[in-house]
Automatic annotation (TrEMBL):
GO molecular function, one term: ATP hydrolysis activity
Keywords: ATP-binding, Nucleotide-binding, Transport
Keyword field contains Secreted: no
GO CC annotation: membrane protein complex; plasma membrane
Transmembrane segments: none
Domain ABC transporter: 2-223
Protein name: ABC transporter ATP-binding protein
Keyword Iron-sulfur listed: no
Domain of life: Bacteria
Length: 223
């Protein structure tokens, strides 16, 4: 699904050049469940943003199904994100004034679906994460684990091919973490490719493949 070759990403920070990625070559197969580990500042979020077409590399190629994200137009990247790639963050990133239903529905905005189809898909996604009875609740009325499940529903409602998650359990206690982990495993078993940045060894243990990103370079960790 992904093939990265010679990927670097440098940032300019107060006149200084920061090499967030210093030459990454890696492939990620369709259907895989990959955990990305490594120290803070190692380049994990930068790597995930490149996979998610949220950013472009400074040099090198990021192929998604053979097409180079580095060379795609802004509109093409937008279409890719709208249809193929789901993103989940540590802080859930839900809109506090909207209900769970409305938060999930937002992801369908760019797809131009008919209203009925749109509503059916939102309810199906909420049911998929076990929150069909919480559709009218706002984030403040839900537990952390439930909020993250809404965020996952928002990511999967567009039926993406890959789900990218940056520390999805970082703000959750152990029981809520297990709830999210079980959900991620179920989605992967259903065929969704998962790439999960995590500091949590319980999450990394369940992945099929573990990568370590340190000082902007990547290596495979033995299982
Ligand atoms: P991680 O997620 O592993 O903690 P990041 O990918 O966030 O690492 O960051 C890698 C390096 O790049 C760090 O040194 C960080 O300070 C730097 N960096 C990340 N994003 C930016 C940015 N937008 N501007 C400048 N420097 C950045
Ligand atoms: Mg990070």
């Amino acid at each position: 699904m992904f093939r990265l070759s010679g990927v670097t990403r440098t940032y300019r920070q107060k006149g200084r050049i920061v090499r967030a990625l210093a030459g990454v070559d890696v492939e990620i197969a369709t259907g895989d469940f990959v955990a990305i580990q490594g120290p803070t500042g190692g380049g994990k979020s930068t790597f995930l943003q490149l996979l998610g077409a949220l950013d472009r590399p400074s040099t090198g190629a990021v192929l998604f199904d053979g097409a180079d994200i580095a060379k795609a137009s802004g509109a093409e990247l937008g279409r890719l994100r709208a249809k193929q790639i789901g993103f989940v963050f540590q802080g859930f990133n839900l809109i506090p004034t909207l209900t769970a239903h409305e938060n999930v529905d937002m992801a369908l905005e760019p797809l131009g679906l008919a209203k009925g189809e749109r509503s059916a898909r939102v309810l199906e996604a909420l049911a998929h994460v076990g929150l069909e009875d919480r559709a009218d609740h706002r984030p403040g009325e839900l537990s952390g684990g439930q909020q993250q499940r809404v965020a996952i529903a928002r990511a999967i409602v567009k039926r993406p091919r890959v789900l990218l998650a940056d520390e999805p359990t970082g703000n959750l206690d152990e029981s809520m973490r297990d709830e999210i982990l079980a959900l991620l495993e179920r989605l992967n078993a259903e065929g969704l490719t998962l790439v999960v940045v995590t500091h949590d060894s319980a999450v990394a243990k369940r992945a099929r493949r573990r990568l370590r990103l340190d000082k902007g370079t990547v290596r495979d960790l033995a299982r």
